[in-house]
UniProtKB/TrEMBL annotation:
Keywords: Glycosidase, Hydrolase. It comes from Brucella melitensis biotype 1 (strain ATCC 23456 / CCUG 17765 / NCTC 10094 / 16M). Belongs to the virb1 family. Residues 20-113 form the Transglycosylase SLT domain. This is Soluble lytic murein transglycosylase. Gene3D superfamilies: 1.10.530.10. InterPro entries: Lysozyme-like_dom_sf, Transglycosylase_SLT_dom_1. The keyword Hydrolase applies. It holds the Pfam family SLT. The keyword Nucleotide-binding does not apply. Its EC number is 3.2.1.-.
Amino acid sequence: MPPIWPLKHPKAHRRDLDALITKYSVAYDVPERLVRRVVHRESRFNPGARNGPYWGLMQISHPTARGMGYTGSAKGLLDAETNLKYAVRYLSGAYKVAGGDESQAVRYYARGYYYDAKRKGLLQETGLDGSWKRNGPTREAAASIQPASLPEGAAIPIPGVAPIQASYAAAGQ
């Protein structure tokens, strides 16, 4: 998939980002509002944001993304979906180490949480031991998806919701 930034239509861009944020918050069992909070804090929803060694929507560093399984170049983290895939994965570890405290998770995300995870015996669960294995949503997260209401005719797929197939039959047939 080519990068979704920049798009000519900011509203379409934001809808695409919204769908990706929903997808990865569900995939890594992190509250969507927490992901949005970090994206807003780090880049104001700008996938092309750069600040020193930090890249993209969630301002993740290349070494941190590699620790979460990313194998591409640092510049590849400017792709919104790539950035969210690895940065939300990292945020999910911060959220676990924080015991579900969203404010603490934001602080851990910003400063790192390796030693806290180690002290709490959570290195493997957070993927910080180098053995990140979870590729998709947990069963609990997938079961908790609430369908979002979109404008009629919206073409953005909602993660976890099967598309409705419309049919047409002429009158009198």
